[in-house]
């Protein structure tokens, strides 16, 4: 997962610390039954999850085989089940635990998008042996790792599927197109027990608010991929993330060979950060956090039970969450168990009242919880979705 920009570019919808004008505070009141929920709590709107999955499918022309959604956003078997009901069978994971969760939930194909090194190689092999009905694969960008996985394949008697992780400009992992990539590809093909699956091209550095800028960047990457494929065809290509999902999807109908898949992640839940940055995307925020006012330490000031341990905090303080019911809220203090905000409306809010918070970055926020309360028809249900 790429780091998100601390603030939006000048041509974005509005300043990063303010809320979209389209948000209506009344629609973000705590759902019915919220008084039964111990805070802080992650809330998942199952109806919006279903709608977001339908939108993802529409984007790829209702071809579920063209989707390989990333499970790192939700980490939930229940969400994998929603995908499976929609006909989506292939997934991407960032950790062995996520891969195991997806396989146990019934995924047919799981790509571990994290090069396994050291002890993880043995754990990956064990995962393959445990879930025989799931086809596993992983990414590589290093000759030594390829050799190690070749030895692993020989010792365990399995054929291991490998994708080459391509660095298309993010400079986090991967290998650039050229002689080194070709050497890696040849090593995979020559090794007994290894199968070359194709190219994994994650463009996590592309998060410009301007759709046109993202489109130009995607086209440049696509031309580079296609040039490589002309010289050495690959069986499959997995491309893109959430900000570029629709742009890559537009290219799929004209590219039957090799087989191309899109790999969005965040849009199943969406979040405040993406809602701010990408105005053209129709997804709805499906994951929120319910928090309680636990103190009123001064006039105009509220203290909430929404600390670092319940809200992603990798960005500047003022950007960590939004409160639609308090459009003027300013985040002024954050510690392990407390979040202090200021608002002109604070006087009208009593200790013990609950507020709905929208995390700027939902993926690491979900990771802080063991389960989520499920909301349907604007009411908290008896369901709880476990977060693996």
Structural descriptors:
single chain; 388 residues; alpha/beta; TIM Barrel; 2 domains; seven-stranded parallel sheet; 28% helix; disordered N terminus
Low-confidence stretches: 1-22
CATH top level of the largest domain is Alpha Beta
Mean pLDDT: 92
CATH architecture of the largest domain: Alpha-Beta Barrel
The residue fraction in helices comes out at 25-40%
Give the C-alpha Rg: 22 Å
What is the structural class? alpha/beta
Number-wise, the strands total: 16
Largest β-sheet summary: 9 strands, mixed
CATH evolutionary superfamily of the largest domain: Alanine racemase
Specify the oligomeric state: single chain
Number of helices: 10
Binned strand content? 15-25%
The outline comes out as elongated
Number of discrete domains: 2
Report how far the terminal alpha carbons are from each other: 18 Å
- The secondary-structure element order is EHHEHEHEHEHEHEHEHEEEEEEHEE
Q: CATH topology of the largest domain, anyone?
A: TIM Barrel
């Amino acid at each position: 997962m790429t780091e998100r920009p601390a603030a939006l570019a000048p041509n974005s919808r509005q300043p990063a610390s303010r809320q979209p004008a389209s948000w209506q505070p009344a629609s973000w009141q705590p759902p019915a039954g919220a008084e039964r929920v111990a805070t802080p709590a992650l809330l998942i709107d199952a109806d919006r999850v279903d709608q977001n999955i339908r939108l993802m499918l529409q984007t790829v022309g209702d071809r579920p085989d063209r989707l390989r959604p990333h499970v790192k956003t939700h980490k939930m078997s229940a969400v994998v089940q929603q995908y499976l009901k929609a006909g989506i069978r292939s997934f991407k994971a960032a950790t062995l635990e996520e891969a195991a969760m997806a396989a146990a939930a019934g995924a047919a194909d799981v790509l571990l998008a994290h090069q396994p090194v050291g002890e993880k190689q043995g754990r990956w092999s064990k995962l393959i042996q445990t879930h025989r009905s799931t086809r596993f694969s992983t990414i590589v960008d290093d000759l030594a790792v390829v050799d190690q996985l070749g030895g692993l394949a020989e010792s365990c008697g399995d054929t291991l599927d490998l994708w080459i992780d391509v660095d298309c400009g993010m400079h986090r992992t991967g290998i650039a197109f050229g002689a080194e990539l070709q050497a890696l590809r040849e090593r995979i093909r020559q090794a007994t027990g290894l199968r070359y699956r194709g190219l994994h091209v994650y463009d996590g550095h592309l998060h410009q608010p301007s759709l046109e800028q993202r489109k130009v960047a995607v086209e440049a990457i696509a031309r580079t991929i296609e040039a490589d494929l002309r010289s050495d065809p690959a069986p499959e290509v997995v491309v893109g993330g959430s900000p570029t999902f629709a742009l890559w999807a537009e290219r799929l109908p004209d590219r039957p060979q090799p087989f191309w898949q899109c790999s969005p992640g965040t849009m199943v839940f969406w979040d405040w950060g993406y809602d701010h940055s990408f105005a053209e995307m129709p997804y709805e925020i499906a994951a929120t956090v319910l928090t309680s006012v636990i103190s009123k330490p001064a006039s105009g000031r509220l203290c909430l039970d929404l600390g670092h341990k319940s809200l992603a905090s990798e960005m500047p303080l003022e950007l960590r969450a939004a409160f639609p019911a308090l459009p003027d809220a300013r985040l002024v203090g954050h510690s392990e168990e407390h979040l202090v905000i200021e608002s002109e409306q604070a006087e009208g809010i009593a200790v013990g009242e609950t507020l709905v918070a929208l995390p700027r970055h939902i993926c690491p926020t979900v990771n802080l919880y063991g389960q989520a309360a499920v909301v349907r028809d604007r009411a908290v249900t008896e369901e709880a979705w476990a977060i693996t």
